[in-house]
Design brief:
The chain is α+β, with helices and mostly antiparallel strands. About 35% of the residues lie in helices and about 30% in strands. The protein starts with 20 loop residues before the first helix and ends with a helix. The structure holds adenosine-5'-triphosphate and magnesium ion (MG).
Length: about 425
């Protein structure tokens, strides 16, 4: 993509309304613009990040055997009256009336809808288990939308739902999902720690929240330092993985247990702040019973399925990644989710050799690179590339170009390499 022809409206000034780094940087790097309180438009570069994250989430859900579908954003009040949550949900729910005076709402989550859908076609124990997910916009009329996309009103969530015949099956689904989540965060390039959590609005008896560590996080977190070192993912075995994840102490302030905390050796105790990027729940028959969804069991009796639900805040992740990975100059994107893997900085637009090398690099790196082909000072190109946070910058100036050399800069470390065009390409492609 050519920067001269792109809508990436970077800002030099720090927007006054933004209190924390990720919000400031998302506005300054031209990723999003606020359209109304807590409601954002995703501009091209921001949309690329959101899509890359959603795709990693999708691939890991698919790999775990979860089936993708798509439910609507608008739901009927009737559905929520069945579970009793229409009144219980309160002011966070955006309620809508259509022209026929029918009561609708913009979905804050989908337990009721998925239960109704599965109830409609699953009649026998033979049709279970089922695991389904979608990636869809949610709306919660938060009292205080803040910190940009971290606490929006409209936000993108991956939500999955599991249906099993018994508790044992439901716990298997829960463990599988925890493993899929840890793989997802690892691929994105961030550390997220699963912590014992309250079950809140969803209800139920087993839940974990996944927290990205960042000083600006809304939750206090307490965890055993062994967590950072542990590579439980390598085991590949769901039970062993789950065992390791849940025996290491990790809790948010709501679930913090001082007696247990004292058992963690003092030199391993870590306290900090966390951003909740996901939460998983096992809540049993809460919805199947209240919404009368039963299947016929092997002996002809009615069985209410055991359910779980599993959310990831896809749009919140964009802000959380930036909170965890930035410096004074701007964003430092992990390779897997950067809007562009590399930027090409042409330091002498109009110089035949420099232009030729840049055009060649641009053609060969194709869609995943941003070519800064503007008539701008080198200093400005450097500053904007640092702000946007591309993992690699390929800097092409006339002196090096004359010898077929370019400079390659790694954003995360600041390392610089003088290389031939071919070697630079090989390094960027990894
Ligand atoms: P919070 O405690 O931060 O309000 P929650 O516990 O109410 O979130 P869940 O119902 O667990 O949220 O939803 C699943 C995920 O959706 C959360 O882990 C979070 O990543 C994301 N999410 C929830 N509310 C918002 C919001 N207002 N803006 C952006 N993402 C959100
Ligand atoms: Mg939650």
């Amino acid at each position: 993509m050519r920067l001269s022809q792109s809508l990436i409206p970077t800002l030099k000034e720090t927007p006054a309304e933004a209190q924390i780094a990720s919000h400031r940087l998302m506005l300054r790097a031209g990723l999003v613009r606020q359209m109304a309180s807590g409601i954002y438009a995703w501009l091209p570069a921001g949309h690329r990040v959101l899509t890359k994250i959603a795709n990693i989430v999708r691939e890991e859900q698919d790999a775990a055997g979860v089936q993708e579908m798509l439910m609507p954003t608008i739901q009927s009040a009737e559905l929520w009256r069945e579970s009793g949550r229409y009144d219980a949900y309160g002011k966070e729910m955006l309620r809508i009336t259509d022209r026929h005076e029918r009561e609708l709402l913009f979905g804050p989550t989908n337990e009721e809808m998925i239960t109704a859908i599965v109830r409609d076609s699953v009649k026998s124990y033979r049709d279970l288990p089922q695991m389904l997910y979608h990636i869809q916009w949610k709306f919660r009329d938060e009292v205080r939308p803040r910190f940009g996309v971290l606490r929006g009103r409209e936000f993108l969530m991956k939500d999955a739902y599991s249906f099993d015949l018994d508790r044992e099956g439901a716990v298997v689904a829960y463990k599988k999902m925890m493993l899929a989540y840890m793989r997802t965060f690892q691929r994105i390039g961030i550390t997220a720690i699963p912590m014992r959590a309250d079950t809140g609005q969803i209800g139920g008896d087993l839940s974990h929240e996944f927290h990205v560590l960042a000083p600006t996080g809304e939750s206090g977190v307490f965890y055993d330092a062994d967590f950072e070192a542990g590579d439980a993912l390598a085991t590949g075995d769901v039970d062993a993985f789950y065992e390791q994840m849940t025996t290491i102490y990790a809790a948010t302030d709501e679930k913090h247990d001082v007696a247990a905390w004292e058992k963690v050796p003092e030199n391993r105790r870590r306290e900090g702040r966390g951003i909740e990027v996901g939460q998983i729940f096992y809540f049993g028959k809460k919805y199947s019973e209240t919404m009368n969804f039963g299947v016929v069991g092997p002996d002809g009796t009615k069985i209410f399925p055991e359910m779980g639900s599993y959310g990831i805040g896809v749009s919140r992740l964009v802000g959380a990644i930036i909170e965890a990975s930035h410096d004074e100059a701007g964003i430092i994107w992990p390779d897997a989710v950067a809007p562009f893997r590399a930027a090409i900085l042409n330091l002498r637009q109009g110089d035949a050799v420099t232009d030729k090398i840049c055009e060649d690099l641009h053609a060969r790196l194709s869609a995943d690179c941003l070519y800064d082909d503007r008539e701008e000072r080198a200093g400005q190109k450097f500053a904007e590339a640092d702000l946007m946070g591309h993992p690699w910058q390929i800097i092409v100036g006339p002196r090096g170009a004359a010898n077929g050399q370019v400079e390659l800069k790694r954003r995360a470390t600041g390392e610089r390499f003088e290389l031939s065009v071919e070697d630079a390409l090989a390094k960027v492609r990894g």
